[in-house]
Specification:
The structure holds 2 protein chains of 2 kinds.
Chain A: H1 23-27, E1 32-39, E2 42-47, E3 52-58, E4 63-65, H2 66-79, E5 83-86, E6 92-96, H3 102-111, H4 143-158, E7 168-171, E8 183-189, E9 194-195, H5 197-203, H6 206-212, E10 218-223, E11 226-231, E12 249-250, E13 257-263, E14 278-284, H7 292-308, H8 315-322, H9 324-331
Parallel strand pairs in A: 7-8
Antiparallel strand pairs in A: 1-2, 2-3, 3-6, 5-6, 8-13, 9-12, 10-11, 13-14
Helix pairs in contact in A: 2-3
Chain B: H1 9-13, H2 22-30, H3 34-49, E1 54-55, E2 68-69, E3 72-73, E4 91-95, E5 102-104, H4 105-118, E6 122-125, E7 132-137, H5 139-151, E8 167-168, H6 182-192, H7 194-198, E9 208-211, H8 220-223, E10 226-232, E11 237-238, H9 240-259, E12 268-272, E13 282-286, E14 291-296, H10 305-309, E15 314-315, E16 320-326, E17 340-346, H11 351-371, H12 378-385, H13 387-394, H14 417-430
Helix pairs in contact in B: 2-3, 4-5, 6-11
Classes of the chains: A alpha+beta, B alpha+beta.
Chain lengths: 358, 431
């Protein structure tokens, strides 16, 4: 095919959202007064104009087949005035301007297997990545981990019984595309990359790979007469940063790529400033199809938090109050030397006071 | 009818349990789609071996340099032939969503029809950068799928060292906390940079995110190179009817323990009505016949907590705008960085003000393109050169709102001090 036959793209960028927006939202744009939550999974917004809208939130599998999407459209047309939106955590929201439509909509969603919830003090859907399904550098799967865990947390998704909202994320490598969360599940490699020296020269731009290493552990080398790269394994922190620009530096390992659990990331500015999450457990096996060892640790942290935190304490607020020693004591997680930060700026993470809880 | 399903004992486990199953969805697609059959085969292999089998490559659409995520299988037999040949090419189209991710069923159905014709039938709403991800097309089908989506008014998102797809919260469309028109800012900003989205030529990725209030539902401080977060300068507004209603329902213990005690700067106090301070910086509202809450807005840091708890009774002020932070990112390479305040407050209520925001974005990207090292994010660049050098280049004056505290070491050459003081004085006098 010659280029002349190819269609030039229309560089339209972001489409105008007003063409898709529910009419009550459009009419009251920028004019909302307050909201409440009549039940878990339902938000009720009231406008200064007196208009009201009920939003029913439901969980999805995010990676959806067209039949699932069409089913959601059918429900939206029949029960929800034909408009939907998605949240940042891949929940779908159906807006209705008539309260009497809420209950039938919920019944229909639940009858079709879409759990209604994810609002307020619930455990919402897990923000996640692509994993083995589509990523080129994954240490584990994403959708499968999420499905397994949400099967076990669905009750907390459908209720609002946690001290405050709980955001979870999973990431299938240390780049952490899943993002900061109250509890995050992230691959943690434990061995340096295995290098296929036959391929490096042809596949990798060697200076760029050298530059990518955060600890300067990679250097050019001649191996078996071929230009390649070598890793100073005493310096290597097994982060996997060299693997994307140089696939012959295989970092993923079925046994030695483990899973770590991080807690206390908070996105919001509410109460304390936003916080980054902290590693509290590692060495968990990457164990498909159900990742039961990971699920046990996450569920345990959630249960301890639920029992012990006060209302409105996010996970990070709760730990601020009880302190890290008690966090590890209550969750029965071992505090190992690997959890003492030694990266740049690490002294800010050490206790420079006599503030010690007994 | 598609070919026969491969045995997938591991994936079958993920059809059990109450949460919606992507495996069940894939199997439904596999009834009449060979690509889905083989995708399941390859994914099952990953579940057995705990290895990924995709590699990247170069696949694109005519006129663009990015936006397609190419995936070729690496799972091959001894002759180098793909074991799952119908999923040997499984590329993704990243498509930019409308701000706030609003859709009607008509547009969603059209997307499904297009993806059924050209792709695997698997669509993710949405990826972590906010893209609608149309997952699974052969190299030959990518152009056709894009052409049809593009005809519908949708466009590809960013990939590689480019301006990336952006996200904004539901904002003004449905949220009382919205402090500016997030969708307008999102669309105006991103559509200024379509060239930088479609033709990756920056040092590394650049992300914008737009949150309407400090609750920052888009997680922008931690993730965005440029975070635009709504806020306000005047007093928190109050509504006595809703405040009394809240108190009647929740009572004194909750007011004291959940609101008063949780105010980060102790700006929020409970008082007898007769003792409430009368001052232009005070917001106050009666919660009963005897008691009122008193908020000293000068001490308030706009954290949103009391407003979140007592929504409607309390709400953001009317002199609204946004705070802009620059430099948020996750781990690689130097460790996590949050964004830093570079504009403590700017109005965004006029077209001119919006243009100023876009102009700031333009100048930041121009500076980033010129000065960042390869594979360096804005946060790392600022860490390397220092915030003051960055601000100098942007023509932005330093402001104590940009720091947690002033410098804690003497390692700085200060022989320009008097000159700086004179400049600040002159500016004050001119204002």
């Amino acid at each position: 095919m010659s280029q002349a036959q190819l269609r030039r793209p229309v560089e339209s960028g972001v489409p105008d959202n007003k063409q898709f927006m529910h009419p009550t939202l459009l009419k009251n744009y920028g004019n909302w007064k307050y909201h409440d939550r009549p039940r878990p999974g339902v938000l009720h917004h009231v406008s200064y104009s007196g208009d009201q809208v009920w939003s029913v939130r439901a969980g999805t599998q995010r990676q959806m087949d067209v039949y699932t999407i069409r089913k959601l459209c059918e429900i939206a047309d029949k029960f929800a005035e034909g408009h939907v939106r998605f949240t940042i955590r891949s929940n779908i929201e159906f807006m209705v301007s008539d309260e009497s439509k809420v209950a039938p909509l919920i019944s229909e969603l639940e009858a079709n297997g879409f759990p209604v919830g994810g609002t307020g003090n619930s455990v919402s859907m897990i923000a996640h990545t692509q994993g083995w399904l589509h990523c080129d550098i994954p240490g584990t799967d994403a959708s499968g981990v999420v499905k397994s865990l949400m099967d076990e947390l669905i009750v907390e998704f459908k209720r609002e019984e946690m001290p405050n909202r709980v955001h979870l994320s999973t990431s299938c490598c240390e780049i952490n595309c899943g993002g900061q969360a109250d509890i995050a599940i992230i691959v943690q490699h434990t061995k340096p990359p295995k290098i296929n020296h036959d391929l490096v020269a042809n596949v990798c731009e060697r200076p760029a790979v050298v530059a990518r290493c955060p600890v300067a552990a990679i250097r050019p080398a001649l191996v078996n007469g071929k230009p390649s790269l070598e890793v100073d394994e005493t310096k290597c922190v097994c982060c996997g940063a060299c693997y994307p620009p140089c696939p012959p530096m295989q970092i993923n390992d079925p046994e030695y790529s483990k899973i770590a659990i991080w807690v206390g990331g908070k996105n919001s500015n509410a109460r304390a400033k936003p916080t980054f999450m902290k590693m509290v457990a590692s060495g968990l096996p990457n164990n498909p199809p159900r990742w039961t060892e990971v699920a046990e640790v996450v569920k345990n942290i959630l249960h301890v938090y639920k029992d012990d935190a006060r209302p409105w304490e996010r996970l990070s607020d709760w730990i601020d109050r009880i302190g890290w020693p008690r966090f590890f004591e209550k969750t029965d997680l071992p505090f190992t030397k690997y959890l003492v930060d030694d990266w740049r700026g690490s002294r800010a993470n050490l206790n420079a006071s006599t503030h010690i809880r007994f | 009818m598609a070919k026969k399903l491969h045995d997938t004992p591991n994936l079958d486990e993920l059809e059990k349990g109450p949460w919606p199953s992507f495996v069940t969805g894939l199997k439904r697609l596999a009834k009449d789609n060979d690509m889905a059959v083989d995708l399941l085969g390859q994914l099952e292999t990953s579940y057995k071996t705990k290895k990924g089998y995709w590699k990247g490559g170069t696949v694109g659409v005519f006129g663009y340099g990015g936006g397609i995520i190419p995936r070729f299988t690496e799972l091959k037999d001894e002759n180098g032939e793909p074991i799952y040949k119908d999923a040997a090419e499984f590329h993704t189209l990243r498509v930019q969503p409308p701000a706030g991710m609003h859709y009607n069923t008509d547009v969603l159905r059209k997307m499904c029809d297009i993806w059924e014709r050209h792709g695997s039938g698997l669509i993710a709403f949405h990826g972590q950068s906010g893209d609608i991800m149309f997952q699974g097309a052969t190299t030959d089908n990518v152009q056709g799928a894009f052409d049809e989506l593009n005809e519908m008014g949708f466009d590809l998102g960013g990939a590689g060292p480019a301006v990336r797809t952006s996200m904004s919260c539901v904002g003004a469309a449905r949220c009382e906390q919205s402090c500016y028109d997030e969708a307008k800012a999102h669309r105006l900003m991103l559509n200024t940079f379509v060239d930088d989205i479609h033709r990756p030529s920056l040092p590394y990725k650049f992300k914008f995110k737009f949150s309407g209030c400090p609750n920052d539902c888009m997680n922008s401080i931690q993730r965005a190179d440029m975070a635009v977060i709504g806020t306000w300068r005047d007093n928190i507004r109050t509504d006595e009817a809703l405040a009394k209603k809240w108190f009647a329902k929740h009572g004194m213990n909750e007011l004291v323990n959940d609101v008063v005690a949780r105010c980060p700067t102790k700006a929020f106090q409970l008082k007898e009505i007769k003792d409430v301070k009368k001052d232009e910086h005070i917001s106050s509202v009666a919660i009963s016949d005897t008691h009122a809450v008193e908020i000293d807005n000068h001490d308030c840091v706009r954290c949103m907590h009391c407003i979140n708890v007592m929504t409607g009774a309390l709400s953001p002020g009317q002199d609204k705008g946004a705070t802009v932070l620059v430099g948020g990112k996750r781990t690689l390479k130097i460790g996590d960085l949050m964004g830093t305040v570079v504009i403590p407050f700017m109005k965004l209520d006029t077209d001119e003000a919006m243009d100023e925001l876009v102009d700031l974005g333009q100048r930041i990207i121009d500076f980033f393109a010129e000065n960042a090292l390869e594979h360096e994010r804005t946060g790392e660049m600022i860490e390397r050169i220092g915030l003051v050098n960055f601000l100098d280049a942007m023509g932005i004056d330093v402001d104590p709102n940009m720091v947690s505290n002033p410098r804690m070491n003497p390692y700085v050459r200060t022989d320009g001090w008097d000159e700086e003081v004179a400049k600040i004085k002159a500016k004050k006098q001119a204002a």
